[in-house]
Design goal:
The structure holds 2 protein chains of 2 kinds.
Chain A lengths: L6 H10 L10 H12 L4 H10 L4 H10 L11 E6 L2 H5 L2 H12 L12 E6 L11 E3 L2 E3 L7 H10 L14 H4 L3
Parallel strand pairs in A: 1-2
Antiparallel strand pairs in A: 1-3, 3-4
Helix pairs in contact in A: 2-3, 3-4
Chain B lengths: L20 H6 L4 H9 L1 H10 L12 H6 L10 E6 L8 H8 L1 H15 L3 E6 L4 H16 L15 E6 L9 H8 L23 E5 H5 L1 H7 L1 H6 L11 E8 L5 E6 L4 H8 L9 E5 L38 H6 L8 E6 L4 H15 L5 H18 L6 H13 L2 H9 L8 H4 L1
Parallel strand pairs in B: 1-2, 1-4, 2-3, 5-8
Antiparallel strand pairs in B: 5-6, 7-8
Helix pairs in contact in B: 2-6, 2-10, 3-6, 5-6, 5-7, 6-7, 14-15, 15-16
Classes of the chains: A alpha+beta, B alpha/beta.
Bound molecules: flavin mononucleotide (FMN), iron/sulfur cluster (SF4) and FE2/S2 (inorganic) cluster.
Iron/sulfur cluster binds next to α15 of chain B.
Chain lengths: 179, 430
Amino acid sequence: MAFELTPERLAIFEELLPKYPTKQALTIPLLHICQEQAGHISDEVIEYVAKKLSLSTADVKGVVTFYTLFQQKPVGRNVVWVCRTLSCELMGARDITRALEEKLDCHVGETTKDGEFTLLEAECLAACGGGPMIQLNDEYFENLTPEKLDAILDAARKKKDGGCAVTFSPVGIRARKEH
Amino acid sequence: MPVENPRLLTKNYDTPNSWTLAAYEASGGYQALRKAIAMGPAAIREEVKAANLRGRGGAGFAAGVKWSFLKTSPDKPNYIAVNADEGEPGTIKDRTLMEKDPHRCVEGFIIAAYALDVHTVFVYIRGELVLAIKRIEQAVREARAKGYLGDKVIDQDFKLDIVVHAGAGAYICGEETSLLNSLEGLRGEPRLKPPFPAVVGAFGAPTIVNNLETLATVPTIIELGGDAFSKLSRLHHLRDGGVRLYGISGHVNRPGVYEAPVGITLRELIDDLGGGVRKGHTLKAVIPGGSSTPVLREQDVVHAPDEKHPLHAWHGKSHLDVPMGVDTMRGLGTMLGTCCAIVMDETTSMVRVAENLMMFYAHESCGQCTPCREGCAWMARLCQQVRRRHGHAGRPRHARRRRQQHHGQHHLRARRRRGDAHAGDPEAVS
Ligand SMILES: Cc1cc2nc3c(=O)[nH]c(=O)nc-3n(C[C@H](O)[C@H](O)[C@H](O)COP(=O)(O)O)c2cc1C
Ligand code: SF4
Ligand code: FES
């Protein structure tokens, strides 16, 4: 089935369009908006983006595969990124990763059986001073211990709005909410 | 000497709702913009030059000088691309500016744009930093509503828009030409230089790429005057001026972001700002400015008996007691980088540190060059083998051979052996 953006998301795209000198410059912003809606970047999304921006699907696919934040296969309702880079590791990131794998009963790179969580490793997320840390959807949790994780995961399980059928989208709807 | 605590850039960090326009204006915000507009573009550029503002993104190039390279032409617009990609492991400073004082950043962008005759500023923010993106977007909206942006900036005949552009998770997009490619909607692969961005940058137009902190410092420079700002630094005489944000992470008691003059020592950063190495432990090594900067150790001392040597004043002192400046750190064989240190105590395995960071570079290689694409992964694997004690005496030689093959030195060596005097010195480049 062909992919279409909802009217309110399309409006964000149309607002951005005149700000750039070329259409191609909207590749990443538009992919973010699409991913917020669809959850991941499927072939249909790639075709949609290519058509919208008058590009070849190869151009768009090249961009999708280059960047870490674009999910190329479906992910859980919540995405947990655990930072594995040096500062966090010095402060115990490997314990956090192991604890997450146990608590979620899945390995890094996998989605839980109930589809609630996808567990991924991230490279340094610019929060080294608060290591070890995770990013859960679009929120940071710093200075973690394995004990602190339960409350964080429970809260995410209960949170039914926020609609994280997706990762997060920096330029999407939620970014527009007043902060 | 106790570390001075100027609180210029971090002035608002503890204010409630510091990210709102109301809070920023209450602290004197946007007065520098008014002053700058009264001064005019040329005078602003002079102040920034006098401020000896060295780029805060890693390379430490003088901002005033970079601005003078902008090659304007009548048929192309000028752009500013703000580098807020903050991806270098250990680096945590730009995020705090965007989250806690976004209006200071926006004011800096506007002044810089006015000085450089730019009508569109692109702010390239790392995609993961969702809160920072929201705060900058909101600050831009507030500034536009207040008339600081738009068709007439503060009723002047000057039009300006700021476009917030979120990246999508790629460390290499912090490199300036790669950032431009990413902004244009391409894969974030670095371009060959020259031409430099100031000549051919975003969308083929002349572009100044500056780090976010570099530009967020501009309002303070205008407020104080360039020379007075520069003199806040302990390295004013080396043309490395002002105050900057320091970060510290790893095995210290108080990790975080601190403001201090340029030129404090690593020891001051660790002990006075970072609260010292964590209790019961001793320092093993420190990465001074993000993971790309070579490691320093306390027991290494400066050897500069020659009076003309730039580090002569610190001859015989520990590396940790040399002021942190762009040129002094270069003199030590490392780099100032982003000024965000990673501290490691005696429990740390340096082999594992190397492995961890090589995994980072292997993951983040953009894949254009074979030595980087293949080599980083090889190095990570090699470190892993050494750590697991599977390494043997032949391994390091093996690694060096691989590296030389990548550099084409292997052939040089063979040609030299055959007596080809023109083959160059294979050791010289390695
Ligand atoms: C691999 C690589 C990554 C970089 N990442 C960043 C970054 O995240 N943020 C940044 O401001 N500069 C980064 N830089 C430096 C930029 O290329 C550029 O020098 C800088 O943005 C210029 O701004 P400045 O003169 O204000 O420092 C990086 C450079 C390289 C080679
Ligand atoms: S392959 Fe590596 S060295 Fe080459 S441009 Fe990409 S990141 Fe830089
Ligand atoms: S190393 Fe984990 S956030 Fe930087």
